[in-house]
Amino acid sequence: MIVKVLKNLSFSVLLMTVPAAASAAGCRLALVLAMDVSSSVDAEEDRLQRGGLASALLSEPVRTAFFSSDLPVALAVYEWSGRYNQHIILDWRMIDSPSALREASETIAYSKRSYNDFPTAMGYGLGFGAALLERGPECLYATLDMAGDGQNNEGFGPQLAYTEFPFGDVTVNGLVVNAAEFEAEVELVDYYQNQVLHGPGAFLIIANGFRDYERAMRIKLERELTPPAIGQLRKPEFAG
């Protein structure tokens, strides 16, 4: 039954509701950032993560990393929550100049939350990201980031998503928003390590609450955007 649901999760809806992909010429990384807007994220927390991402993109180390190679980075951002509650915030944008990066940051900063009362359907969220990467530019590397403050609680989970959707050449990193005083959040870190991280060099960054989101995102982006050297790919890991 689950497999039937997966097969029926058509990517045609995504393809019909968003514009054509950016040019594939000369791209080193296709980077997709997925933000959790499930019901566990309140309005203030959403403001912090949206503003934190926008600010992290313009931070000095991240800007330097974006332009550390002659080949640009293609960037896309979407929100995810329930089974059919995903929404693109920033469609594929080739970040080939400081002005392109600034415009991407502003698009995120001024975006409005699309959903606020749905559960955490991480498998569906990953499937949406896989479809977005499929129609995106062909780069040397492809990375999808799953940011969130909770485990999957609706539909199939990440491991089945990795089996059924095209993740063969995709690295999935994680950003956990962790409330350290709750035991459940310790379990969330374990969940991301064991269920969400995927592919060569995958890693996890922990934000200590949504007020720490910008710092965590800045560290993660800098690491992802730095061109990898031969032999640097490692097993999945995590850092605070």
Topology of helices and strands:
Elements: H1 2-8, H2 12-17, E1 29-36, H3 43-58, H4 60-66, E2 73-80, E3 86-95, H5 98-109, H6 122-134, E4 141-148, H7 158-164, E5 170-177, H8 183-196, E6 203-207, H9 213-225, E7 237-239
Parallel strand pairs: 1-2, 1-4, 4-5, 5-6, 6-7
Antiparallel strand pairs: 2-3
Helix pairs in contact: 3-5, 3-9, 4-9, 6-7
Description:
The protein is α/β, with parallel strands linked by helices and 240 residues long. It has one domain (26-225): von Willebrand factor, type A domain (Rossmann fold). The protein is 40% helix and 21% strand. It is built from 9 helices and 7 strands. α4 runs parallel beside α9 and α6 runs parallel beside α7 (158-164). The chain is globular and about 40 Å long. The N and C termini lie far apart (39 Å).
Provide tags for this entry:
21% strand; disordered N terminus; alpha/beta; 40% helix; 9 helices; 240 residues; 7-stranded mixed β-sheet; 7 strands; single chain; Rossmann fold
Please tell me how large the radius of gyration is. Answer: 16 Å
What is the percent of helical residues? Answer: 25-40%
Q: Class, according to the CATH hierarchy?
A: Alpha Beta
As a percent range, the share of strand residues is 15-25%
The biggest beta sheet, please?
A: 7 strands, mixed
Treating each run of at least 4 consecutive H or I residues as one helix, how many helices? 9
Uncertain stretches? 1-25, 229-236
What name does the CATH topology carry? Rossmann fold
Total number of β-strand segments?
7
**CATH architecture level-2 label:** 3-Layer(aba) Sandwich
> What's the average pLDDT?
84
The structural domain count equals 1
Structural class: alpha/beta
CATH superfamily: von Willebrand factor, type A domain
Silhouette: globular
Strand order of the largest sheet: 3-2-1-4-5-6-7
* Through-space gap between termini: 39 Å
SSE topology string: HHEHHEEHHEHEHEHE
